[in-house]
Amino acid sequence: MRLDIKNLEVSVREQILVSDINLTVEAGKTLALVGASGSGKSVTCSSIFDLLPAGLKAKGEMLLNGEPIEAKALRGKTVSCIMQNPSSAFNPLQTMQKHGLETMLASGKEYKRADLIKAMEDAGLEECDDLLDYYPFQMSGGMLQRMMIALALVTGAPFLVADEPTTDLDLVVQSHILSRIEAISKERNLGVLLVTHDFGVVARLADEVAVMSEGRIVERGDVHSIFSDPQHPVTQSLLDAHLSLYKEATNG
Fold it and tell me: pTM above the 0.70 mark?
């Protein structure tokens, strides 16, 4: 399967925030959309789900296997999402089972407790039967992020958007989350759009890379060429920042 985002532009009033965005996500591969904060990554991600804030307008085209499709029709059934800041993504008044029920019904699937538990186990959670009765405040950030992965998986969607999936998590939990995303994408042959500013995450998970700056894609290529021979100054600066942090960590 193949999902194409063609000529995406997002504007507010007469100001263009994102323009000329063309991305292709293929089954079994991970495309990383990389850029510094404010580069337009999250706006692009929100556009895919038709979830832009009020006042922002998007135009462009979405293609599924070469056929035009509306963004709303993709949401949940064809494309699922792992959002950043998992603690803010759950209704504090609903249990994990209620979140699972709503997610499955919204994606057109019949609710089956066993299917939800299987998705939770695949996401790396334990004692899932008990966890279904938990409320968000009873779970750690890492557990909530795994639960978000489980909710994405239980939809059965062939494409996954992971928007800064390790933000605000400690390094050990980050590693576990990335391992689960890597394993799941291979096991289920998912097409993954990974939205991140972290080149360490890119190196670990991505096949292809698109680098964003000031609302435009300034460089793209396979992960090896981006790391070994970056062409654009923005890519070079992002890599330099990553390498300097890595050196500090290893020397420390």
Answer: yes
Q: Can you read off the two tokens belonging to residue 19?
A: 């323009």
- Phi–psi pair at 223, nearest 5 degrees: -60, -35
* Bridging pattern class, strands 67-68 and 56-64: antiparallel
Residue 248: its pLDDT value, please? 52
**C-alpha span between 15 and 19 (Å, rounded):** 11
The Cα–Cα gap between 63 and 52 comes to 19
Query: Is the Cβ–Cβ distance between 34 and 220 less than 8 Å?
Result: no
Helical segments of 34-162, H only: 41-48, 71-74, 96-106, 113-122, 128-131, 141-154
Instruction: Determine the average pLDDT of the residues in 178-187.
Output: 87
Residue type, 166: T
Average the pLDDT over each of 71-75, 107-111, 215-219 and give the range with the smallest value: 71-75
CA distance 115 to 144: 18
3-state secondary structure of 35: coil
Q: Residues with Cβ < 8 Å from 245, sequence gap 6 or more?
A: none
Residue 166 CB neighbour total at 10 angstroms: 23
A 10 A CB-CB count for 37 gives 8
Who's near 226: CB < 8 A, 6+ residues apart?
202, 209, 211, 219, 235
